[in-house]
Fold:
Amino acid sequence: MSRAFAPKVVTANDLLTGEVVYLTADDRWSPHHHEAELIEDEAEAQLRLLAAEARVAEVVGAYLADARRGPCGPEPVHFREVFRTRGPSNYFHGKQAEGA
Amino acid sequence: MYRYTDFDEAFVRARVAQFREQVERRLSGALTEEEFKPLRLMNGLYLQLHAYMLRVAIPYGTLSSRQMRQLAMIAERWDKGYGHFTTRQNIQFNWPKLRDVPDILEALADVGMHAIQTSGNCVRNVTADHFAGAAADEIADPRPVAELLRQWSTDHPEFQFLPRKFKIAVTGSPNDRAVTRAHDIGLRMVRNAAGEPGFEVLVGGGLGRTPMLGRVIREFLPKADLLPYVEAILATYNLLGRRDNKYKARIKITVHELGLEEIRGLVEAEFERIRGEFSGADQRILAEIEQSFAPPPFVAKPVAGFEAARRDPVFRAWADTNLHPHRRDDHAIVTVSLKAHGATPGDATAAQMRLLADLADAYGYGELRISHEQNVILPHVARADLPALHAALLPAGLATANVGLLSDIIACPGMDYCSLATARSIPVAQEIATRFRDLGLEHEIGPLKIKISGCINACGHHHVGHIGILGLDRAGVETYQITLGGDATETATIGERAGPGFSADELLPALERLIAAYLALREGPEETFLTACRRLGLEPFRAALYPATEAQRDAA
Structure:
């Protein structure tokens, strides 16, 4: 049996600022992970990624990242994605400084 | 110092104008990211985890005070008020906005700087001994040669699409401070039996996932033959280097797979073929470049004040660690540590950059250097001025007396910034430095190089650290592997892996056990950690890192 599909979010960096963004269910780019659309179907995830990649004037480097359901919305699974939700650990810069 | 000619100026300005248009076309949708990415990388613009990053070249690590002030201005106006000095003597700005980058490049061009060839499969920023032109042990200043190589390699039509990136380092001193054996080409100035200047040429060194030390391809290359010989190496590599596998594309793999003898034969044949084409033009240009690296007008000053100031223990501690012998007895080379305990290795705020520029003007003939060890050097300071310099550095957090000691750690940006990283490096460096400061052992431990990389690409040079730390992702957990016995100098050695990795929590206690073992095992304070490793082998240090558990002891 193939492994169960791990739920995903579509994430990318904003073209102008480079800030980390997430694709929402209503096709916006949100700076907040918990606003992302949690995609639980593999085929749907691929389609959403293709749609995101087509938005070349808005974002760079879209990809699917593992996520899980949390009380306030999707939460990152891997530590790299956790870091992307807040910013570097040596300075209070990035999302953590913007109150995200 | 080298100043841009009209040609340099026109070239750099043209590149800025081109990039400005490329950015406009990207923003208008005329260029896709796929089309734009190679263009931005050619101009040093990366996309990292949280933002863009602009890597600016500091050729052979040399900066004027004016250039340092401009870097401070850029940090304040377009970034978050600081810059990060790297292990390739470059500076990285971590938060530029895409739209601002052409203006940043324009501001760099205003002071004779650029970000060209700080990325991509081309010849990267040529690095050199950071004490060049100042060190007492130097045969000659390696920077004119480095500048010649920079001019030759910039936009060289044959070498813009090499199989992989290509790094060259030059040293003019027998004491290798430029890690020449870890470069694709390492150049060491030597003299032959007749006393003529030339180079020992090393090829095929590199760190990364397959660390290798460079091997001598030519024991003595006359100085005048440098450019055709380097071009022959590049041309040979350009044809033979593996383009089928990114991880086997560096020249070290070509040398390893084909054997040094075969490569040498091919290079020598190509060298003979192209040598005549150089017709001396390169030597005329080199002679002009050498003029611009004439030593500053040294002012002789009595050293009595320096000797008196040494009675102050704070000054004396700093003078003992952060000064290096200058070619003149009444001067010293000052290393300004960017490794204050708990700070990010290699970071300087705009205010610190400005102060360093001002101090370079006041006490250092307007000249600064960036070392691959991520510190700032004032290469020429009269000993008489050292107490005043130290007093000015102190309140700015720039007088940490730790150069060459445990907390003078090299660390790559790691997963706090870099999209390639597999774990963080900066917090590890911060924790090690603060812990050993609190233990108060640093000066007792003596010379010790800790180098940390956040992934296998080894930007933090962990393979050549006395203690190397490599951050990895093991099943979704940051894990740190330790290597021991590495050496970056003329006695270069690739460190040996100690054993299984440690979690972030386990790492610091493991290092404490390791250092305690060294202190217990050494013959005396004169025996450094590295010397002890060489005398004893790694087993006693492994035993300290991996003590037998109680269960294992019971079973034994």
Summary: The beta strands of chain A are 8-14, 20-23, 29-30, 59-68, 75-76.
